[in-house]
Design brief:
The protein is mostly helical. The chain is built from 20 helices and no strands. Pfam families: MFS_1.
Length: about 500
């Protein structure tokens, strides 16, 4: 191979994911560095997300303990309260990620946790419908920045092929929160009457206080940006920046620019990632918020329904982590997202098509495992495939914001007027949303695979027809050009 061709190949291989080449950044020292990064990022951030999901979804458990009856929230007004959470969430996600990009995660993420912990406690102090509406809206506002912020932080610490497994571990906190929340709600519910408060109030108060206590500790242990992380030695930081620079833009301190915000808003792939989550968010949040009611509707007593939410969530957590390992091994996302959608569709079909409570409970297991696994995989995709730090921060926030419009639709569909035949119509609509999500995943898969092939041909032709010019660009200026063009550069290879 000529020197010019080798330069082009080296430039492409820095972002390529072909597996027949030895990875120069997967040495024992690199694996040790990764374990150190995981130690300082995953436990604290996963714990914060577990608390976030617990504090947003425990209202489903509180409803079974008499929340809506005690404060007079009739019929579909409960669904309105759920929707108000997501309205606040959607409105403040992109602004929150812009704030994070301009400042740092060490202060911003624990601050968000502290504020939503306070709001969560206030849920246990409401006495009427207006109070519930207000507190749910502000809970959405305060929780809005954690998930997209964490996904962005991961993109600044890990190479692209290393991110999706960490995101899956992180998102697994949602499933653990569901399992933990059901058991915790059952135990706290036994405090009914203590201090003159109902059991549902204690669910909000105690779980909110737990969030506040952990947020105080998070101020001291949440990491800053990688280039200034205090837990890295000088040698580790140098290697850390080197491996990021060879893979993406994460090792560069990019200045904020509104031009980069516009580049995200005009990218069809960014919108596709958002619509993908839109389809899956409908089922994710309708399932997480109504699972206790769905199980109680199968004929089980309230206290049994609280406890019976635990096994499906435990299966979902295991499914997330096992599938993440397999997806990482084969370096694929789309196919596993589609398979997850199919599993969830089968689960909903069982819920619709059978009359036996036992069989329908099996459907709950399948739906929960498929829905949570698909979400865990798709939420890492824009973090892997959108290059340019500001563009990626906006893309991640857009994905969650537009996705959560699907969540608003989901919580409004599972209303009392549509609860006949054990939520038959809402379950059918859920299947429709899952089909939509699977089709969007197929579109992303097809477009990016074709674009990867096209760019490979372009690189080969450049190496053959313009050796001197290409060599000069690859050796002297290609790095700068790649950073400028981001994921639109010819050497950029999408993770499919």
């Amino acid at each position: 191979m000529s020197e010019s061709k080798k330069a082009v190949a080296d430039s492409a291989s820095s972002v390529d994911n072909h597996h027949d080449r030895e990875d120069p950044y997967d040495t024992p020292e690199d694996r040790k560095l990764l374990r150190k990064l995981d130690k300082h990022l995953l436990p604290v951030l996963t714990t914060l997300y577990l608390l976030s999901f617990l504090d947003r979804s425990n209202i489903g458990n509180a409803k079974l303990d008499g929340l809506t009856t005690d404060i007079n929230v009739p019929g579909a007004n409960y669904n309105t309260a759920l929707a108000l959470y997501f309205i606040g969430y959607v409105l403040f996600e992109v602004p929150s990620n812009i704030v994070l990009k301009r400042f740092n995660p060490r202060i911003w993420l624990p601050f968000l946790t502290l504020t939503w912990g306070i709001v969560s406690v206030c849920q246990g102090l409401v006495h009427n419908q207006a109070g519930l509406f207000a507190v749910r809206f502000f809970l959405g506002v305060t929780e809005a920045g954690l998930f997209p912020g964490t996904i962005f932080v991961f993109s600044m610490y890990y190479r692209r092929r290393e991110r999706h497994f960490r995101v899956a571990i992180f998102f697994g906190g949602a499933a653990v929160a569901g399992a933990f929340g059901g058991a915790l709600a059952y135990g706290i519910g036994l405090m009914d009457g203590v201090g003159g408060k109902r059991g549902w109030a204690w669910i909000f108060i105690l779980e909110g206080l737990l969030t506040i206590v952990i947020s105080a500790a998070a101020f001291f242990i949440t990491p800053d940006w990688g280039h200034s992380a205090s837990f890295l030695t000088d040698a580790e930081r140098q290697r850390f920046l080197e491996r990021l620079a060879a893979d993406s833009d994460a090792g560069v301190q990019e200045q904020f620019s509104w031009r980069l915000v516009r580049s995200a808003l005009t990218d069809h792939l960014v919108w596709a990632y958002a619509f993908l989550f839109h389809g899956f968010a409908f089922v994710l949040y309708s399932l997480s918020l109504f699972l206790p009611s769905i199980i109680a509707g199968l004929g089980f007593a309230t206290w049994k329904a609280q406890l019976m939410t635990v096994p499906p969530y435990a299966l979902a957590a295991a499914s997330i982590w096992v599938t993440a390992v397999i997806a990482a091994k084969y370096k694929r996302r789309a196919i596993f997202i589609i398979i997850s959608a199919v599993v969830a569709i089968v689960g909903y079909a069982v819920l619709i098509g059978t009359n036996s409570s036992g069989r329908q409970y099996v459907g709950v297991f399948l739906a929960t495992a498929g829905v949570y696994t698909g979400n865990a995989l798709l939420l890492s995709w824009p973090g892997e495939n959108v290059s340019g730090q500001t563009k990626r921060a906006v893309a991640v926030a857009m994905q969650i914001s537009i996705g959560d419009i699907g969540a608003i639709a989901g919580v409004l569909v599972y209303r009392p007027s549509l609860s006949a035949n054990r939520f038959r119509k809402p379950h059918l609509i859920s299947i429709g949303y899952l089909i939509f999500g699977a089709l969007v995943a197929a579109y992303l898969w097809t477009w990016m695979a074709r674009e990867n092939k096209r760019r490979a041909v372009v690189r080969q032709n450049l190496a053959k027809t313009q050796p001197e010019d290409v060599e000069k660009q690859a050796v002297e200026a290609d790095r700068e050009e790649r950073l400028l063009q981001g994921d639109r550069h010819v050497s950029y290879v999408y993770q499919v």
